Structures are given as C-alpha cells and as structure tokens.
Amino acid sequence: MWPLGRFVSPPVDPAPALADLNGKTVCELWDWVFRGDQMYAILNDELRKRFPDVKFVEWQRLGACRA
Q: Where are the domains of the chain?
C-alpha cells in the first residue's frame, strides 16, 4: 500500500449514519488495545442513557481478537 498508489476499484460511498440506536444491536469487538474491558462498560452505560432500547452483544460472548 502506498498513499499515492492507483485506485484499482471505484470508490464506495459510506452508508448513511443512523439517527437513533433504539431497537438496534451493537456488537463489541476488541483487539486487546486501550482497555476495552473497562471502556465498553462505560460506553454501554452512556449509550443506554441516550438510547434505552439499544441491545449489546458483548465482546466476552464473541471473543476478543488477538493479532
């Protein structure tokens, strides 16, 4: 990879952002960087305050990625 290399496929526009997480499921993925075991608990609490109907699939259920 090189930042000035040629594109070999056309660019893809990103999907529009969700306006609301109520009724949605958020899956946690963690690669053992930056204290995910602590940060997800804080992040989930804050998201639940803002979106009471959000659901989570926690990283412990999915397993953590080790490179």
A: 25-62
